[in-house]
Amino acid sequence: MTRGKQKIEAQRRNAEKNQKPKGSQMEARAVALKASCPICKVQLANAKQLGDHYTSKHPKERPPAESS
Q1: Domain count of the chain?
Q2: Where in the cell is it found (predicted)?
């Protein structure tokens, strides 16, 4: 009989371990994205990506200062 109980306990532990983490990927993405383009409102991770975005998508415009 102990084997049956051990099996049930192991299944319960595995179910707890395999649960999806709380929170969504959208929340994590919002935290990671720091910079945004004021022209097209695309969100980027850092200022370097914002500079690259400006050179490829808005070549006639100047990128904003690093502080924004």
Answers
A1: 1
A2: Cytoplasm; Nucleus
